[in-house]
Amino acid sequence: MFPPVVTKDPAAVLVEVQATYKTLFPNADTAFVPRAFGWMIDCFTGRYKDYHTIDAAYHDFEHTMQGLLCMTRLLRGRQLAGAQPQLNQRIFQLGVLAMLMHDTGYLKRNEDIEGTGAKYTVTHVTRSTEFAATLLSEKGFNPTDIQSVQNMIQCTGVDSYLGKIPFQSEMEKIAGHALGTADLLGQMAADDYVEKLPILYSEFAEAASLPDASGTVVAAFSSAEDLMRKTPGFWENYVQNKLNRDFSGVYRFLNDPYPYGANEYLQRIEANIAKIRQRLSIAAK
User: Fold this and answer.
1) What percent of the chain has pLDDT over 90?
2) Of 152, 163, 174, 244, which sees the most CB atoms within 10 A?
3) Is there a domain that residue 4 lies in?
4) How many CB atoms lie within 10 A of CB 71?
């Protein structure tokens, strides 16, 4: 079992991520994780340039913390399992940055006063890659590293075709697969995932009202109840296939012990799916 971490508290997640980083890379720059967290806390709380505080109710900073915690645990499990190729310190750092910035596309500029950042759901992945390029350029990152972060962020797109992402190395691709995996598992395994589905629907509904939403996933739900009704199928028919096929089954590095131990994230998701089915059954009576 993983130690409990309050993902509403970025400081608690920072401690866990920093511990993993130091375990994997004992001689690493210990200022990196706090520095990266500081950048992104500024971005999400309205202290970066001319951006508002994040106002997307579901894709908030806790959502990012859930994904980051899951990803670093996954990468730690992979490294300790001796899987090849071993990820180096730089790829780990870039993976952390990519997860921290993968939903910056929901951020709005100060002059953008209509609606919430949820209206960018359809385009948020592209907007996140653009945001990452701007911020990392300002911080002195080179074009190769920036491209790595952008490639990893692209792994989180619901409709992304991973075969078209121009990964620059096998290590970069593995980190991208870990990021995409953790983005899904981190949120779906949360204790309050079921209770937050209506909030997710409200984001989809806002995005669906825009012209570019036709034919996209956000237009697929007629109500919060409809989203809840379709979530078990989303897990069984979409997420599980994506985890195994597109992301090469790297979620197995969360098994404790590896390779045949229990996977706490999968267990928590299955419990959430069971809770949804129970609620739907009661509502149908």
Assistant:
1) 93
2) 152
3) no
4) 29
Helix (H), strand (E) at residue 26: none
**Is residue 223 in some structural domain?**
yes
Mean pLDDT of 80-109: 98
pLDDT score at 213: 78
Mean pLDDT to the nearest integer, 252-280: 97
Cβ neighbours of residue 249 under 8 Å, at least 6 residues apart? 243
Number of structural domains, the chain? Answer: 1
Task: Give me the phi and psi of 182, to 5 degrees please.
Answer: -70, -30
Using DSSP, state whether 166 is helix, strand or coil: coil
- Claim: this prediction has a pTM higher than 0.85: yes
Domain membership of residue 126 (yes or no) is: yes
Q: Is the dihedral of CA 57, 246, 208, 278 positive or negative?
A: negative
Rounded Cα gap, residues 72 and 66, in angstroms: 10
Range list of H helices, 189-263: 193-208, 224-233, 240-241
Q: Give the pLDDT of residue 131.
A: 98
Q: How far is CA 145 from CA 20, 103, 133, 282, in A?
A: 21, 18, 10, 51
Q: What is the pLDDT of residues 13-42, one digit of tens each?
A: 999 999 999 999 999 999 999 999 999 999
The CA distance from 241 to 225, in Å, is 24
Nearest to 56 by CA among 227, 202, 195, 183: 202
The answer to whether residue 1 sits within a structural domain is: no
Q: What is the residue range of 19's domain? A: 10-284
CATH number of the domain residue 88 falls in:
1.10.1300.10
